[in-house]
Amino acid sequence: MQPSPSYRALAGLVGALLPLAARWSPRLSQGHVGRRRSLAGFLEWARSSRDRSRPLIWWHAPSVGEGRQAEAVLVRVRERRPAWQLAFTHFSPSAEQLAASLPVDVAGYLPWDTPGPVGQLVAALQPTALVFAKLDLWPELAGQAAASGAAVAMVAAAVSRQSGRTRWPARPLTRSGYATVAAAGAIAVEDAERLVRLGIRPDRIQVTGDPRADSVADWVARVDQQDPLLALGGPETLVAGSTWPEDEDVLLGALARLRATGHPGARLILAPHQPSPDHLRRVEAQTRRAGLTIHRLGAMTPNAPGLPGDAWPDVILVDWVGILATLYGAGGLAYVGGGFGRAGLHSVLEPAAWSRPVLFGPRWDGSRDAELLLGAGGGRALTTAGGAQAQLAEAWLEWSSAAGPAAGRLARKVVEAGIGSAERNAELVIELVERKPRRESDYLGGG
Question: Counting runs of H as helices and runs of E as strands, what totals does the chain give?
Fold first, then answer.
């Protein structure tokens, strides 16, 4: 099913404007350059390495969070069907490092969702199946893949109550893409119901759970307990990940309160969501204005990133990327950003997998994981009423005591309850591929 003319016109317009917008945004520029290079790289790989006698599963995730969910599933597919070829695409620059580490045959940026580049890529790869992670389904890509004979699937499919895709104008613009889905693994029953509203047939949806639970549990199990990053903190250290300026205002204010009331052991490891040079300098200036000391992690000794004795700063500012999932194990409690602004709450299961109690801002209601943590007693939401800084300082003290490990164990139970989803989603993909009739070109050994 082809996208509507309105969708194609809008996608074409946005695609034409992106190179102009990239001139003023390093992040957009990185993605724009990456898309151009990746398309050429995919076409070259297809010419030299695509074996059309073997199934090719094309996985797509927008950014690193959804990429981790996809990873948990594709790793299990790779283990069970090692002869299959796997391709992976992403949209955000945040997933570059993840893409390079995945056990796939080829990886890179997804081209913008317009007929020309998408058609080139589909024709070159000739996928047996196209698997979208979470909700990032692109109508042009889904339509062209389905028209080529590929089976379209979704894993870790989730639709929040606030999702704009369920409303006008997104819903009619994207409906053609969701109508192509042959199998979808929904995280929960309510997600399955919303997927039907988006255009997926009910008989093509299964509730398979969230593979993020497997992903974060796998990560914690792989971390070397001698990793020097784990030596950065202690029971009174709060690790704050994926933070935005609104979060940082609350975090630094709470730490300043603790210092002023005689709690020298409280320290903060702060990992901004976008550690750009300007953002890092802003956090440093704000920290010093609050009367706190700060040190960038990148300036610390690489093999033993600690500072001796009294030289430890109040705040360690994380200027590396790709280490947050490990850093959560360094503290006694965690804070996850995005709940004070419009960005949306980031992944709360990563610290929960380390058995750390989790704090976050008031805008959490689009996160099922946050709801589960609150219900289990392993998480706590700050509110704007009564002063978020004071609330955070109070929770910081409470969870730096014996109450912290107990709440952390409750958080870990939420993760453990979800383990097994990656295997169920992998089975969904394998069944879809193996029951799918082969194309005539496959029997002929080529195109």
Answer: 18, 14
